[in-house]
Amino acid sequence: MSKGTKYNTWVHAGFYSGMQKLSVPLSSIFITMILTKDVLTETEVGIWGLLMVTTSILELIRQGLVKNAMVKFINADDGKEEKKIIAAGFYLNTIITIIVAIILFIITPWVAKVQHADPLKQMLYLLQIGLLINIPFSHFEWLMYAKQAFKGLYWTYVVRQAVTLLLVACMLFIPFKEPLYVLVIIYNIAMLAGTIMAYKFVKQYLVNAFSYSKQWMLQLFHFGKYVFASGISTLVFRNADQLLLPNILKTTLFNAYQGIALRIISLSDLPSQTLGDILFPRTSQTENSSNAATVKYYYEKTVGASLCIIFPVLIFVFLFPKLIILILAKESYFAAIPYLRVVLFTAVTLSFLKQFGTIMDSTGRQKHNLFAITFLAILQVILCYFFIGKYGLMGAGYALVIAHLAGFVLTQSMLYYYYKINFINAFKYAVKFYPEFYHIITHKLSWTKNK
Fold it and tell me: H or E stretch including 116?
């Protein structure tokens, strides 16, 4: 492969993956602006945030058991077993979703009571419909990841987010007595719209791709069980503070403040998500997963690229938090500023932590990833119970920062031991990335001109 072609492939994949990832938080920002300023009270915003945490938990359960295994084996396969792998992924996804839906239906009253959020009960019941729609949606999405069809992913999410934004905007002009329930219905409708769009990009891969294979279902499950366990620990690590806040403080009000801050942090996490989607299929390929030098290069370069983008964003947010919050919400949310400034640091460590999981899973060290993230999840829960009870919302911030520092030390030690990865090199790449990015764009323009 020529150098120009290599650059074009990476830039093309990165562009559409980045645009797809960007479409979600950008539309979420506009949705947040509508909800926080004109549609929901602060307490209702907190409840809506809890529902979004629930959806992320449900999604990560299925991703852990199916997505990574499906992506890995499709990329490692020479094409002979691909149809069986795709079918096994679909059937496994369906079984897991049904089991999750039944469990969620049973525990819904308890969840609403523990979180001190009565409307959450009916919202979770309505969400059951969305879970069923999500079976084909997620299967199509993962198939596009495996095939690195990032253009299809981009348009799928554009449609889904555009429908969501349009219907939420209608709530400005149509007053609803129970707006939280309407929001869940909108979520389900948008999921259906995204599924229809996704089908157009994957239908060619689905031909003869529904033959049952017990062997591949078991193989995907056995690979995914470690990723699934890691996913559960990741959920606890990343969401313990949000779930424990209403439980300890007996109100969802602080979740509203926290949600605004985390919405801002999620924007800075975009580069890491985007590059991780490109990194996993590449490091899953047999010739790369067994080469420590290649893994080291991919990790350090990927994290460096993320840091290069997020540093200017974090500095701007730290200096002008009131401006950011006024754009997203209103002055009553200024109470989130101290928390926001504390947790900004975690956007840096998160870039390292996310790619650690990607590398470990893609190179067959799922157990090591499970050990690390489980330790951090337990640490996070302990810290949250101690600090939230003593310092409230700020305590959640302190717990998050301490857990991230511990995670950084642990994961970097493991990466150095197995792959000789040096985190300092990531910062060096971050500094060098600007001229290199210019070089990539120059090659792309030259390749396009001579095509």
Answer: none
